[in-house]
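Researcher: Here's the sequence for the chain we discussed earlier.
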Amino acid sequence: MDGNEGRYLQECIDSGFIAAGPFVERFEAAFADAVGSGNAVACATGTAALHVALRLAGAQPGALVAVSDFTFIASANAIRYTGADLLLVDSERDTWNMNTELLHDDVVRRARTGAPMPDVVEVVHVLGHPARLEPLVELRDRFGIVIVEDAAESLGAVCDTQGRQAGTVGAFGCFSFNGNKIITSGGGGMIVTNDGGLAATARHLCAQAKASGGRYVHDTVGYNYRLSNLAAALGVAQLERLADRLRAKRAIASRYDRLLHDLPVSAPPRAAWAEPTHWLYSVLLSDGAADPDAVLAVMAEERIQARRLWPPLHRQRPYRSVERLAGEVADNVYRRGLSLPSSAHLTADDQIAVIAALTKGLGNA
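Model: Thanks. This is the structure I predict for it:
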């Protein structure tokens, strides 16, 4: 909180606009401009943004939504909220994101054999690295499959050689402003879309689908998903510092790359066609080098908080019986992966201390 957060919050308090107010529209407009989208709709959480976007994309009972297997569970939960079925898709080795070529080939096979086809693909840009979108664009153009991008962790990531940002290629892109994200509003999310009509419908659903005119008339089932003026004020102030945060994240990643050079770990993905944000700088321990939990225990003794990556969705209790395409890569990333401290305010000395603790953990585990 090193920008205009305090001043903007005081403006809200002085004006009396706490719940609704002008900072919401200001945040939406600034965010759409920052990512290069036509429209942005502020939501209470990133999960709320996904829920509404998936509903508008056609996720409903009887529909099938393909989603990345290696992702935080909220990506799957938002699909379940719509009543749709899930198809879990394994990761590709070089980015840890959805193997979109694998999904492409499976959909072509389904079309040929008459098997059920996905109606929607929710592709997650995990840990700040964009997913490979070209195979999904081909599925969209050939079969009408709607693309929803879960860019909760990848604000500011460039996803192709054309310079497009993660979240702006599909019909919808969804972002999170939880407290651990690149920018935060304390909690919050955003839907972006180039379709003005869909943006208006999303905003309507987020406000309990209340008809205009001041009367309590609602034309469909909506949600209490609005972002408060207070949270939006934080978001506006944080967004003003986005370029600084991204530079800091990338500098921290480069420094970690150098410090890790002689350790039995591999650096996080960095595809030639992408510009990741390194939201969480995450490494893979070499096979047989050490047990990740033992390494974490040693690092904790040194007062360094690292953490395991998420178990793939197919290992989570609610999704163990869900249909999936492969899963070995996601399992491998989970089995060997660790996220290192990644705050944009880390100093060089902080990072040296992290690597010293990691080195000790690798030696003692």
